[in-house]
Structure formats: structure tokens, C-alpha cells
Write a structure and sequence with these properties.
about 150 residues, mainly alpha, Cytochrome Bc1 Complex, Chain D, domain 2, elongated, binds heme C
Length: about 150
Amino acid sequence: MDVMKQTLTFAKNICIVLLLAGCQEEVKPIDPGHIARRLAFREKLNEALGDNYHEPGPEANAEQFERGKTLYPQLCGPCHGGRGDGKGHTGAALAFPPPAFTDSVQADFFSEQGRLQIIRKGVPGTPMMAWGTVLPESDIVGLYLYIRSLIGKD
Ligand code: HEC
């Protein structure tokens, strides 16, 4: 009977260990290095853009918006998610998680001009590339107008 009890306790402990290990895989720990790097990058962006960093974003433009909406699923969705929730299938495999555009707190981390500049120039050292080298400015603005429309649509 004792042996039986011991075996059961052992099995139970194994289950708990496996469960905890499983949970650890689910929850991605917050990497303080990642936060520090983003803060430093925001500082650099602010310096590079000067007063322009806090200028308002581009005005709504239906034609550019539609163009951005068309381009988004092919160019950005794989990482930032088709709905902009940050859950794209390529994005899931990245060391630097792609931000969710639907998250209003995250959207406020950079200014509007800051985010526009990120689309143009990318975030060096991360998978976020510089789209300004392959797209005309009007498409960059269109993409920005589209991602801006996703804020709060969780
Ligand atoms: C290969 C994956 C990938 C693709 C494709 C991609 N991004 Fe990103 N993007 C990222 C990652 C990763 C970050 C976060 C970088 C960091 O850690 O600072 C990012 C950051 C951003 C940011 C800064 C927002 C913030 O809160 O950090 C904007 C804006 C952005 N991307 C827009 C776009 C747009 C628009 C497209 C499509 C034209 C696009 N991205 C395509 C991976 C990608």
C-alpha cells in the first residue's frame, strides 16, 4: 500500500513539474533589455526628428488609406498580424515581438511622426525593415493611416 502511495505521489509531482514547464513556455517573460532598447531608440528618434517628432500625424486621405489597406496584409500582416493584433505567423517566431497596432497603449509609445519614421527607416537591429527604400512616400503614409485606424480595435 505504501509503495502504491509513493508511486502516486511521485506521479503527481511529475505532473506538477510538467504543468509548470508547460506554463513557462506559454508566458513570454518581459525582457528588460528589450524595454531599455526601445526607450533608447525612442530617444534617438526624437533627436533625429527634432521638433517634428511631436508634429501631428498626416491628415486622413481616403485614396492613400485604401492603398495602405491593400498593401498591409502582404507586407505587414505576416509579422504584425492580419488584424494588427501582433500575432502574425512569421512574427511568432521572432526574438523581438512585433507590436500590436490594435493596442492603444503600445501605439502611444512613439509619437505619430515617430511611427511614420519607423515605417520609412525601420528599427535597426530588429526584423522591422526600412520600407522607405522600396515604397514611395505616399504608400508609407497610406500604411500609416491604415495602422492608425486599427488602434483600439482589439
Ligand atoms: C519581418 C517582420 C516585420 C514586418 C514584415 C513588418 N514589421 Fe513592423 N515591426 C516588426 C518588429 C519586430 C517591430 C518591433 C521592433 C522593436 O523591437 O523595436 C516592428 C515595429 C514596427 C513599428 C513601431 C511600432 C511600435 O510600437 O514599436 C511600426 C509603426 C511598424 N513596425 C510598422 C510596420 C508596417 C507598416 C509594416 C508593413 C509595411 C511592417 N511594420 C512590417 C516586425 C515587422
